[in-house]
Design goal:
The protein is mainly alpha-helical. The protein is built from 8 helices and no strands. It folds into 2 domains: about 50 residues, Arc Repressor Mutant, subunit A (Orthogonal Bundle), CATH 1.10.10; about 90 residues. The termini are far apart.
Length: about 150
């Protein structure tokens, strides 16, 4: 193994030390190295199962559940901002859309435990700020307040 490879590997491992990262995030950290060295490091990390985009996507999904739930479009924006591969984003969004009404209802129950009509507009704005679709918001508000 060359000195360039060793140095690049150290940079990549330092980037991965605090949490899982997408391959694109690791590539960005290795921007100063030759392409062949970057490819060698990426291949090595994949082989050792240190780098796994699916695992990172699942982690992002888990971080955006429960009281921190967000809508599918906001989830898409978060994944795109982190550099997730398009196929991982599409798979995550598809599963998020299926559970979006339940997540919105659960979020309303946690945030607005009472069913006072005064809170309806505030609850709608809250769900909208979390990136939920208008139809999902209407459905959740109807279920929660009516």
């Amino acid at each position: 193994m060359s000195d360039d490879f060793q140095a690049a590997l150290v940079v990549a491992l330092r980037r991965l030390a605090t949490s899982d990262r997408f391959e694109s995030e690791v590539r960005l950290a290795l921007a100063g190295y030759q392409e062949s060295t970057v490819e060698e490091v990426i291949a090595h990390l994949r082989e050792k199962r240190i780098l796994n985009d699916r695992r990172v996507t699942d982690s992002v999904l888990r971080q955006n559940e429960g009281r921190r739930a967000v809508g599918a479009e906001r989830l898409r924006a978060k994944l795109e901002a982190r550099g997730a591969p398009e196929e991982e984003i599409d798979a995550a969004i598809e599963s998020a859309r299926e559970s979006e009404p339940e997540r919105a209802s659960g979020l309303l129950l946690a945030k607005f435990p009472g069913r006072m009509e005064v809170d309806r507009a505030r609850a709608g704005r809250f769900l909208f700020s979390r990136g939920f679709d208008v139809d999902v918001i209407e459905s959740a508000l109807t279920q929660h307040f009516d």
